[in-house]
Amino acid sequence: MEERLVIPFAPILVESTRSIGYLFEAAVADIVDNSISAGATEVRIGFMSKDPRWLCIEDNGCGMAADEIENAMRYGSQDPHNTRDKNDLGRFGLGLKMASLSQCRKLTVMSKKDGKTVAASWDLDYIKLKKSWALKVYSKEEMDDLPGFIYLNSLEHGTVVLWQDFDRLEDASANAQKSFDEKIELTRKHLSLVFHRFLADKNPQKRLALYFNGDPVLPMDPFLTRHPSTQPLSEQILRINNEEVRVKPYVLPYPSKLNANDIENMGGKDELRLKQGFYIYRNKRLIVWGTWFRLIRQNELGKLARVRVDIPNSLDSMWEIDIKKSTATLPDCIKKIWQLWSKTQLDEVSVFTNTAVEMFKPMIWSMHGIQLISGELFSIRSIVIFLC
């Protein structure tokens, strides 16, 4: 048997992977994931919307040495089958490169660790010129004028991810500056929701501080947990493959009990109906929200129902978490439990008032390797009628 080494042609492969489907806000969120995984408690997103426009994500995480930054810039830098730290938000070892280059043509990463600052860059025009996986490596002097370097230089350790040359945005818009500003505002709202549990962590030492050009980002809590009329229900713990999946439902206050700030936090009254359903969190990071996964239809009566589901990163394959960490699929074993339960409870619909929420029956289930080990079994059918 003859064996040959076939190396992908860099210019074509890199250009092809730019079209994987990242939205601008999802791409930025993917970089923030890396910051959190690196132990950052502060993430600063700086940008210039005028030409030459740029965006940088700065953090005070642990930083990287020269060999680490080279590995981070490698496509497929981590095996998705490896056991990760339970707090790791990464998965495929592709996010830094694919998320960044889906939005820009030049990605530069600067990092500081143990007193040494290193930098490397994927420049698509340079790759095309060299026709190879030519990674640029910069000296400290060459970093001096790059956005984000002043911040990095002020830290003992940290990392800056810099995006430049937004070719697709510029080609698709008659007013690139306006389009860029609109994407920035959308990203601000997106991150305030996706990372709201990090931004509102009760432990000040673990709480994430997030800024856009110096302005702090406040958490957008989809459950309005601090509102006195929000009704949190019993948390359930399911065991799947010896891992815990935590499920906690909420009933939001009726719109008449919400002030203007609450309504704005929910995205407006029209969003109430659209945002009902499951909210899937992977290590506290919101992945998917506002869907019943086709178990039931969205409806007017159920617009106040929200169900928080916490899954560990060890169950990624079961939930089919994608590279962008923006989609997930409800596992068949959980669907079967839902379908079996809903059939037995089809005729039981509880009617709520503001003071009546005790309608869940204690039950223990064991089916297809899933066991309910605490709390009370809840029914979405029981919370779709809410009277005030």
How would you characterize this protein structure?
- This protein folds into 2 domains: 207 residues, 2-Layer Sandwich (Heat Shock Protein 90), CATH 3.30.565; 152 residues, no CATH class.
- By secondary structure, the chain is of the alpha+beta class.
- It is globular.
- The strands form 2 sheets. An 8-stranded mixed β-sheet has the order 5-4-3-6-2-1-7-8.
- Strand 7 and strand 8 form a beta hairpin.
- It contains 14 helices and 16 strands.
Can you say what the CATH homologous superfamily of the largest domain is?
Answer: Histidine kinase-like ATPase, C-terminal domain
State mean pLDDT (0 to 100 scale): 81
**What is the CATH architecture descriptor of the largest domain?**
2-Layer Sandwich
Element string (H = helix, E = strand): HHEEHHEEHEHHEHHHEEEEEHHEEEHHEE
The residue fraction in helices comes out at 25-40%
Radius of gyration: 23 Å
Number of domains: 2
Structural class: alpha+beta
Number of helices: 14
Oligomer: single chain
CATH class bucket of the largest domain: Alpha Beta
Q: Which stretches of 5+ consecutive residues score pLDDT under 50?
A: 341-388
CATH fold title of the largest domain: Heat Shock Protein 90
Largest sheet: 8 strands, mixed
Total strands: 16
| Strand line-up of the largest beta sheet | 5-4-3-6-2-1-7-8
Shape: globular
Kindly report how far apart the N and C termini lie: 76 Å
| Strand portion | 15-25%
